[in-house]
Isomerase (Lactobacillus xylocopicola), 344 residues
Amino acid sequence: MKLLIGGYTKNTSTGIYELPVIPTQDKPGLQLGPAKAVIKLGGPTYFVQDGNLLFTIKNAGDQGGIASYELSQGKYQAKDSYLTAGSSPAYISLNRTQKLLYTANYHTAVLAVFAYTSSGSLTLLDTVTHTADTLGPRPEQSDGPHPHYFDQTPAGNLVSCDLGNDRVDFYQLQNNHLEHRASYQNEPGFGSRHLVFSPDGAYFYVVGELASKINVVKFNEQDWSFTNIATYSTIPADFTGHNGAAAIKISHAGDFIYVSNRGHDSLTVFGVKQDHTLELRQRIASFGQFPRDFNWDQDEKYVVVANQNSNNATLYLRNSEDGCLTPLQKDVSVPEGTRVLFAE
């Protein structure tokens, strides 16, 4: 097992780094070894893997887009790229079964669907551009729509989160064409960023970057009905500094939800009750500045968070009974990290 961390390349980072995951000798557990640059490219702020193929955001000066790499004989080889003028996307996800990629571009407001082959070749299938229909009141929303997430739903549809419009939009891909199906509107100034679904597919939990909140929503993918259940703060009520909630993850069993807080510099842990409402279990420091992404291993036993502004990562042990995190290793050096992914 190994860990991949990538992010911005504005200062010292050169792309995507690999960190070995090493069993400790004196006690059960793991530690992270030194980070080594394994893919050199601009701005790999988000990436995903399908076997030996890796698909990443790519910034190439006045162009932005995505690129594919193949791991062969221990090295990543560039396979293909799709670049257009302007900013690169903020998010990329994949459908391994149908070999599709989905991207959301925060700056250009474009959602895109790509097909990929087993050799890593990329083909654009369709795009949709969000319009300024329901812009929120905050300064970050004044310049237009900002889709920050585009991924699959439990029933095989697609869903995006738009920070500018405070909105969650649902699509179907029919004959390689995106068709809008429904929208769910968050409160003004929420800043809809990312979401996760309950294992039964009947609820989603959307994190608001600008409001530092999680909204619990019951929904039905057959008739596209939505019920607002409850909303919870990811930061303490007495915190007065600036914060932007970022990544959200839900455990495989659906019993715990985790959110990163950039500004409060913490991870917040919620327990999920039987009725899908939440209860606060823990807020723990990220031991760095501006934690954006975090992730866990396949068994959800270990969690790693990357601190973008302090150029370090933190490793935690996760308790599956109460969901809480215990730090195992701090100050793991890795530059400008915004994406964390465990890989075999």
